[in-house]
Write a structure and sequence with these properties.
A hairpin with a 5-residue loop joins strand 11 (125-132) and strand 12 (138-145). The protein is mainly beta. Helices cover 4% and strands 41% of the residues. It has one helix at residues 14-20, and strands at residues 36-38, 41-44, 51-54, 56-60, 65-72, 77-83, 89-92, 95-97, 101-105, 111-115, 125-132, 138-145. The longest helix has 7 residues, at 14-20.
Length: 158
């Protein structure tokens, strides 16, 4: 499929955007799709200075894999969070990417936590480089946006 971005105006639109997002691919229509594909991401501007989350979609067209590290174009540190008991989130060493499945990194599910970066400005792009247990790293673009901004400076979903 073609690469689709899913910038959004409100974080409540994120789940719908991620569900509708296509996956990036560099394969031609005649070739098999890459084992791992990812759609462009969404990063809300930090509420707490220096800490924010990142959301995107990962599709695995091959055997079971794991997202084991992420680096960003702005430096800092990336950790993984998944739902724990009682509605709390817990930090984990990796995010499982089952065989022939799609994993949505969303606010109430598994997602990335970004810390230790400089200011992240609304409307700018951030590159996330995903490192998997098996296969080459994969870079995706994430739009930094302020979910509270209703002035029209953010993009609307099509």
């Amino acid at each position: 499929r073609d690469l689709h971005s899913f910038p959004t105006r409100r974080s409540s639109d994120l789940a719908a955007a991620l569900g509708a997002a296509g996956c990036a691919t560099t394969a031609s229509a005649k070739a098999d799709p890459p084992a791992i594909q990812a759609g462009n991401g969404f990063v809300p501007t930090p509420v707490t200075p220096g800490t924010t989350d990142a959301y995107l979609v990962i599709r695995n067209n091959g055997a079971r894999n794991s997202l084991i590290a992420v680096s960003t174009s702005e430096g800092g540190r990336v950790s993984f969070r998944t739902p724990g008991g009682g509605g709390l989130m817990r930090t984990v060493p990796a995010i499982d990417v089952p065989a022939h499945a799609m994993v949505r990194l969303v606010p109430d599910g598994p997602h990335l936590v970004l810390t230790g970066m400089g200011p992240l400005r609304n409307g700018k792009l951030l590159t996330l480089t995903l490192h998997f247990a098996h296969g080459d790293p994969l870079s995706v673009t994430a739009l930094i946006t302020n979910p509270q901004d209703t002035s029209g400076s953010n993009y609307e979903m099509n």
